[in-house]
Each structure stands twice: as C-alpha cells, then as structure tokens.
Design goal:
With about 160 residues, this protein is mostly helical. Helix content is about 75%, strand content about 0%. The N and C termini lie far apart (about 55 Å).
Length: about 160
C-alpha cells in the first residue's frame, strides 16, 4: 500500500535511490572497520581493537537506520553484497595488508568522503525533493560521521 506522506512517488523513489547509495557506502565502511578490528596488529593493538569495535557497532546502527528510512519511504533497501558493491561510492581495498596507521587513515578518508557526499545529498533532498524528514535524518548521520572522523583524526595526530 502506498503511503500518503506529502511526497510524490517520484520524490520517494529518488530519495530512496540516494538512501540506497548511502546504505551501500555505510555497509562497505562497516565491513572495512570490522576487518581492521580483526586484523590490526602492533603496539596499540588493544586500544585500536576496542576503538574499531566501537566504531563498527555505531556503523551497524547507521546501516539499519538507513535501510529503515528507505523502507519508510516505500522503497526496498539493498541487502546483498553484490548490490552494495555495485552502488557504493567508496573504494574497497582487497588484498592489501595495512599497518594500523594506514588503517586509520583509510577509515578517516572514507568518513570524510561520506561527509562530503552527505552534504550534497542533503542539498538534493531539500531543494529538489522537498523531503525535510530525510534532510533531518541525513544531517544527524553527517554529525555522527564528523564525530567518528574527529576520533580517527585524533589517533593520527598522536606522536
């Protein structure tokens, strides 16, 4: 049954497409963070192992929220690895063995890329599709990524 929430079918479909690209990005970042949690080594192992766990748990919540936002607009959320890899705007690193500092720098770059993309998506949802709910939702996600990025940046600034 189609919802009656003040947005046209076309507006909802367009916003769901934005959300599904974001879902793919978030899932890739979640997977990458989880991979680094499992594979980090070195003198800061314990701290980084716990830190990555905290971040992937936050990303897991974000993934669920993005999928549910798509569903609340009447769309279908992506749900397979193939779909995520086909729709993500982030880059997967396969076959790379990174040291802890490179892991952190890679995650930071992804968070910053997501923040920049979220700024564009916010503008599109507001100006083109007039979807205040998704705009507010994306603003909250952007703030979460800004905080996660700050924490990663703090690790890189330590001497």
């Amino acid at each position: 049954m189609r919802s009656n929430i003040g947005l046209s079918v076309e507006q909802c479909e367009s916003v769901v497409a934005i959300l599904n690209a974001l879902l793919a990005d978030e899932y890739l970042l979640y997977t990458k963070t989880r991979n680094y949690h499992w594979n980090v080594v070195g003198p800061q192992f314990h701290d980084l192992h716990k830190f990555f766990e905290t971040q992937y748990n936050e990303l897991n919540e974000i993934v669920d929220q993005v999928a549910e936002r798509s569903r609340s607009l009447g769309g279908k959320a992506l749900g397979t690895m193939a779909e995520f890899l086909n729709h993500t705007r982030l880059k997967e690193l396969t076959g790379h063995s990174l040291d802890a500092r490179d892991m952190i720098a890679n995650l930071l770059a992804d968070h910053e890329a997501l923040i920049c993309q979220l700024r564009l998506d916010l503008e599109t949802c507001t100006e083109q599709y007039h979807d205040a709910g998704t705009t507010d939702f994306l603003t909250g996600l952007m703030e979460q990524h800004e905080k996660m990025g700050w924490m990663l940046r703090a690790f890189l600034e330590a001497k």
